[in-house]
Amino acid sequence: MARVTKDTIILDVLKLDAGTAPFFLNIGMHCLGCPSASGESIEQACAVHGVNCDELVDAINQYLETIGK
Questions:
Q1: pLDDT at residue 9 in the model
Q2: Radius of gyration of the chain measured on its C-alpha atoms
Q3: pTM confidence score
Q4: CA neighbor of 49 nearest in space, from 13, 23, 19
């Protein structure tokens, strides 16, 4: 089962499962296709958007666990 960390690059998260996109859209990251945004780590995106990185990582990993079953 795939898991992400705060250092995981956003593009790599999206490649794991496109269903992860709403997690980023919900924090205000609406430019997922632009090179700078997709090349950021989860931690960098959270810092820019004022979001708790650990909570986002946990939410994404919970989602990835549910699709892996």
A1: 94
A2: 11
A3: 0.88
A4: 23
